[in-house]
Amino acid sequence: MTTDVQTIFEKESIIPDILAPGTKVPRNLKVIWPNAKLEKPGQMIERDATQPQPTLFVEPSPEDKESQPIYTLLMVDPDLTHRNDKYFGQVRHWLTTRVTVSPTGQVNVSKDRDISPYVGPAPIPAHYFTLGKPHPSRYTFLLLRHKTGVALPELNPDSLRAAYEGSPGEFGQPTQDIVDRMRFSTEQFIERNKMEVVAGTFMLVEGNAKSAVKNASLVAQGLADKMMGK
What Gene3D superfamilies does the database record attribute to this sequence (predicted)? Predict the structure, then answer.
């Protein structure tokens, strides 16, 4: 059955730009910040409101409440310099493991399980000046589960490097700067770790002066880290 979430994902090309064609997205993720709410996929959210780490809820809550399955939470931006940026690939904004979901649907995350700690959106304002249709970035949240419902994905540096398009990058390095987070492939990550999508959503965020400064700072820090061998 095609859900409303899946229909919007296909309409806005989250499928196939991020997820493989035919991917099922059975539930919605509601994302809440202190000053903003993403209640359905495709909402425009003010960039400055998205900087704190949000709280998420699965709607409807997963039926499997008895076995307390373990999930993985992922947030990516596929549109760093332009829509569906193939040069820099997807940028990983958040990746955390051993996530649980309460009976009320709240997604429970622990910072000590972060592989890539949450980094708020910093879209480039120049999106309005790129060739083609002007657009904001499609920041996408996905709650994933191992297909067996039991085993955890192989979240180690070797398996995670297989989730890259192009060069393997530095996945798993402690720095987790923007260079480490680029060239990510959600489709490969899901396939490599035998996962399925439990819930998802995405927001549209346009750049502003603050995000331009932050983006430049993130890039500068990433380049400095790599020059120092981090």
Answer: PEBP-like
Average pLDDT along the chain: 80
Q: How far apart are CA 34 and CA 48, in angstroms?
A: 11
**Cα distances (angstroms) measured from residue 101 to each of 38, 56, 70, 111, 146:** 18, 10, 8, 15, 14
- In angstroms, the CA 84 to CA 224 distance is 27
> How many Cβ atoms from other residues are within 10 Å of residue 129's Cβ?
8
> What is the model's pTM?
0.83
4-228, which class in CATH? Answer: alpha beta
Instruction: Tell me the C-alpha distance between 125 and 19, whole Å.
Output: 25
Looking at the chain, the number of H-run helices and the number of E-run strands are 6, 10
Domain ranges of the chain: 4-228
Burial class (CB in 10 A: 0-12, 13-18, 19+), 226: middle
> Which one-letter amino acid corresponds to residue 206?
E
Please give the Cα distance from 36 to 55 (Å, whole number).
11
- Residue 59 forms beta bridges with which residues? 28
**170/226 Cα distance (integer angstroms):** 10
Note the pLDDT of residue 57: 97
Q: Among 154, 223, 216, which residue's Cα sits nearest to residue 189? A: 154
The secondary structure of 175-224 as a DSSP string is: T--HHHHSSB-HHHHHHHTTEEEEEEEEEEE---HHHHHHHHHHHHHHHH
